[in-house]
Amino acid sequence: MSAQTKRVLSRLKKLGDPAIAAHSRTFFKTGKGGYAEGDQFLGIRVPVLRKCAGEHLDLRLTDTLELLKSPLHEARLLALLIWIAQYSRSNSAGQKALYHAYLGHTKYINNWDLVDCSAEHIVGAHLSDKDRKPLYRLARSRSLWERRISVLATFHFIKQGDFAEILAIARLLLRDPEDLIHKAAGWMLREVGKRNLAAEKAFLARHTGNMPRTMLRYAIERFPERERQAYLQGIQCKDCERVFVPRNA
Q1: Per-residue pLDDT at 233
Q2: At 166, phi and psi to the nearest 5?
Q3: CA-CA-CA-CA torsion for 85, 57, 39, 14, nearest 10 degrees?
Q4: What is the DSSP string of 116-152?
Q5: Comparing C-alpha atoms, which of 137, 155, 154 is closest to residue 146?
Q6: Rounded to whole angstroms, how far apart are CA atoms 40 and 148?
């Protein structure tokens, strides 16, 4: 491990708060069988980590990779926050290197907050003007976190009014077994609806009958209560797209 990386880790440990760390271990389900089983926390708030990232934008890729491989959650998050900032400041060669480093080390991007803060800014941003087939490879991955990356990367496109990838990937993931994927896809569908409600409702019209309950709940969270209940209960509603197939709660 480089001297620079050791200095950064030493500083992180001084910033840690045991009470926050204890809460994080529960919040992120680090117990046996949890999605973050065994993850280690120092207890550092995200705004503090963002400030720390801004102070270490000169770290080399080798140093940030050492941080990303740390068992400490905050070290991995710090590495990603640095990458996000570096990506936005880099030339095309630097951006390509960060993109490939990201996809080459997804086993360390292994919690939903790590994915959610970074996927759109590195994967989504990099593929914005390129072939987007890598997203579909990620969507079909056995890794929960790679599948979530595929979903959250589309946020970059959604913000530009481009919904093709999220609608296609959400279809691919309709039978995904993981609740964290249902939440992510539903969230992105809701983001589509904020920008183009007709596009979201067209997707719901085709897929509400076989959509995971959590995905549906997240997708329609901002709908008027009467309309939301109609979707959830599978009943006819003049504001909805069709008569839905009844679903079990």
Answers
A1: 85
A2: -65, -35
A3: -140
A4: HHHHIIIIIHHHTTS--HHHHHHHT-S-HHHHHHHHH
A5: 137
A6: 21
